[in-house]
Amino acid sequence: MSLSVKHLLGIKELQPEDIETIFRTADNFKQVLQRPIKKVPSLRDTTVANIFFENSTRTRISFELAEKRLGADVVNFSASGSSVSKGETLIDTVNNILAMKVDMVVMRHSASGAPWFLANHIDAAIVNAGDGINEHPTQALLDAYSIRERLGGVKGKRIAILGDIMHSRVALSNIFCLKKLGAEVTVAGPPTLIPKHIQDLGVRVEYNIKKALEWCDVANVLRIQLERQHKPLFSTLREYALYYGVNKDMLDSLKKNIVIMHPGPINRGVELNSDVADSKQSIILDQVENGVAIRMAVIYLLSGKGGEITE
Q: How many contiguous H segments (helices) and E segments (strands) does the chain have?
């Protein structure tokens, strides 16, 4: 088993066959994660560095757990309190880490394109854990994998991505991934949070959340990314929740049951009410569980070990 790429920089670079290979590999690792001993020695001679220039909890922990489940040696680097705060450049930071004989780098950075820059300057395999407002490929993979698991497949399914599309790297990676797998995609939210020309990516645009929910099989609800907004794009969070938030009454008014997803963290009471997030229609915790299996699959496949997964 192998991928057509050396790095996972973005979904845009993957072929549909690559995505299916990742999913099949993740199926095997999900079985491993159900066992009493949830580890395999597949990467026992591999060292992975998690380099996070942006704050993260779920993604960093998910990657670290995936690496340790594979038996890899793990080095964690955080920009806060490091030499980055003293003016050290990105390339110097990474080269210093690579001098310690690291085989793979998982990187999150606030600058869009940072993983591509790194891939052009170092030999280690790079996994993009989120760059600016560009892409978050492993999140899109675990989202699509979770849809496949719940609905039996992705092709032909109607997926609505709701919320702050403008500032979301999750939205862009999801669009690329879902389209490659044959899904229909609609983005919905306030006009100020929908990028111009996004229809060029082959998606529909809807400004009425209720209509988007009536159309879709799955609603992937995104949080409002206030930290990336440099000017007010809507009046108040209360107004946003009133017109664009998803609540139980809204779901109950639909003539069908739809699947609810969220990449986290959830702003409860804003884009998603607790009675929706914690309902039987929600697969949010399944996404978290699947994130470890998907990241195990990506790291294993990029490691170049090949062959069967070690029992």
A: 11, 9
Retrieve residue 284's tokens: 């949010």
Rounded-to-10 torsion of CA 297, 52, 142, 195: -140
Q: Say if CB 111 and CB 132 are below 8 A apart.
A: yes
Domain identity same for 263 and 293: no
pLDDT tens track for 45-72: 999 999 998 888 899 999 999 999 999 9
What is the extent of the structural domain holding 16? 11-135+289-302
For Cα atoms 65, 126, 87, give the angle at the middle one, nearest 5 degrees.
95
Could you read off the pLDDT of 156-188 as tens digits, one per residue?
999 999 999 998 999 999 999 999 999 999 999
Nearest to 192 by CA among 233, 142, 138: 233
Domain presence at residue 5 = no
* Amino acid in position 281: Q
Note whether 127 and 118 are within 8 A (CB): no
Considering the domain architecture, whether residues 249 and 294 belong to the same structural domain is answered as no
Query: What order of strands is seen across the sheet that includes strand 218-221?
Result: 204-206, 184-188, 158-162, 218-221, 259-261
Q: Is a pLDDT exceeding 70 seen at residue 115?
A: yes
Q: How far apart are CA 130 and CA 139, in angstroms?
A: 9
Question: 132-141 b/e with 16+ CB inside 10 Å = b?
Answer: bbbbbbbbbb
Pair 130, 40 in one domain: yes
How much of the chain, in percent, has pLDDT values that exceed 90?
75
